[in-house]
Amino acid sequence: MELLVSAINLDEAKAAWEGGADILDVKNPKEGSLGANFPWIIREISDYADNKIIVSTTIGDVPYKPATVSLAALGAAYSGSNYIKVGLYGPENYDEAMDVMSNVVKTIKEYDDTITVVACGYADAYKIGSIEYDMIPKVAYDSGCDLAMLDTYIKDGHRLTDHLNKDQLAQFTKAAHDYNLKVALAGSVNANDIEMLKEVDCDIMGVRGCVCTGGDRNKGTISADLVAQLKENI
Ligand SMILES: O=C[C@H](O)COP(=O)(O)O
Q: Given this model, what pLDDT does residue 209 score?
């Protein structure tokens, strides 16, 4: 299982890499769970990574606006991202999610077909009216994505496992793997979740809060030591 660590700037990205992260995820918590960061931040981290480590980028908890989201995805790709993560917040159903993701895939694959496109749903979709979590693998496959992911939208301390149990997560990863998609799981997960994530055959564990000082994803900063402690248990 790979470790994805969400960083907000170059210093945090360096700490994540130093701690052993496999994927540097560029994010901006001020703009939401999968909040988009600025192009120059993405470019700075991508240049530093120098193709020696995967750089993923969240382009937001997106609205149901396929063209707007496609433009954002292209901006992230142009800024040097290897993975483009789309938070399917606005789309409420399969058709709307397909409309967004199929246009993002078209945009990205025409620009650079080596870039990985990630369809990310929310374990707490039932609270926010977004497309249900268990639709994400089919949306990802049918739209031509490479990876299916779940995160949590509301970062109030409730965790992935507060919304979905182990069987539900196992069904999610099986559905995605049956589509030959990789799976990433996130949502305030921590070291206590590693065994379960492995048992449900998760490919990528995504974290921020648990590797930030004070455990605070907003006020804390990424600690290389905390990343290393997490990584050694994976
Ligand atoms: O993709 C990574 C997740 O958004 C990490 O955030 P979190 O661990 O603070 O919930």
A: 97
